[in-house]
Amino acid sequence: MAVDAARSEEGFTSAGAARVMAAACRAAGLDDRGAELIRLGENALFRLASVPVIVRVARGEEWLPTARTEVAVSRWLAGEGFPAARIVEELEQPFLIDGHPVTFWHLIVEGDRKATYGELGGVLRELHSLTVPERLVLPSFAPFDKQQLRLDRAVIPEADKVFLRKRWRELQDKYAELKFETPKGPVHGDAHVQNLMVDDQGRVILIDFEAFCYDHPEWDLMVTAVEHHSLGWQTDEQYADFVAAYGRDLYDWHGYETLRGIQEFGMTTWLMQNVREDAETAAEYRRRIAGLRNDDGPRDWRPW
């Protein structure tokens, strides 16, 4: 469903996304008054005050196929009885507002604790065991598909762009030589523990399907493996719980270093998109690109 709206400001900012969100709510017949921005990343996420709904605003029309996949995946997982985020079925989705795909999701009322790494390993094991129906056409995992757009639009020093493009080509060469030995299946594509929520009934729920695909399970395992072995974001006990629940430690695989490079590159260019939002984001971007320039140096990156 496409709706005309006033053009948002150049680039993707919280203010511009809020205008798109408001127009999408009008088109959907929802009240946007009091809506709160809860996250600005690949998408802008708003929580409505009028109804228990989350509004996701994507960065541009290039993400329309992704939004359609998110909607289809939500419907499939609902049919499987899999604990995952649910779209608002009463609306024809996605909307396209001024060149921005917009989707509406049921609010998950959080409980009093966060998901554990053991729970993440268990959810991924269960997800990877599902059989994707023929009617659900999913893309392959595309580790480089967003990088060109990110680099073209980023407001960063030219020297950084030159370095990142060179690193991008190097990673593509390494990826071309990578050999997987596992069968393909459903893959979340961004399987960090923050993409699990525990609701007020104690249920662990998988969210954020924008990178969902049909590919090798290593793409999901690399996220926590890199966060632990490279960045030190989990304790040894937390990572051991993840490995025990899933049944595999990716660090022992010959392709780990290649996936580590791809993961760290993606984490840096993801954050790079928002360097104009505030000084804290800009500082973390500088910390991350400094780490990329020194492969053997310590990573003092902060979770974002």
Structure description:
With 304 residues, the chain is an alpha+beta fold. It contains nine helices and ten strands. It has helices at 14-28, 64-80, 117-128, 147-153, 158-176, 218-229, 236-246, 256-272, 279-292, and strands at residues 2-3, 36-40, 43-47, 53-58, 95-97, 100-106, 185-187, 196-198, 204-206, 213-215. The strands form three sheets. A six-stranded mixed β-sheet has the order 1-5-6-4-3-2, sandwiched between helices. Strands 7-10 form a two-stranded antiparallel ribbon. Strand 8 and strand 9 (204-206) form a beta hairpin. The model is unreliable at 1-10 (pLDDT under 50).
How would you state the average pLDDT, rounded? 92
User: Strand tally, please?
Assistant: 10
H/E element order: EHEEEHEEHHHEEEEHHHH
Q: DSSP strand (E) fraction?
A: 5-15%
Please state the overall shape, judged from the principal axes of the Cα atoms: globular
Note the main attributes of this structure:
single chain; 304 residues; alpha+beta; 6-stranded mixed β-sheet; two-stranded antiparallel ribbon; 9 helices; 10 strands; 41% helix; globular; disordered N terminus
Describe the SSE topology.
Elements: E1 2-3, H1 14-28, E2 36-40, E3 43-47, E4 53-58, H2 64-80, E5 95-97, E6 100-106, H3 117-128, H4 147-153, H5 158-176, E7 185-187, E8 196-198, E9 204-206, E10 213-215, H6 218-229, H7 236-246, H8 256-272, H9 279-292
Parallel strand pairs: 1-5
Antiparallel strand pairs: 2-3, 3-4, 4-6, 5-6, 7-10, 8-9
Helix pairs in contact: 3-7, 5-8, 6-8, 8-9
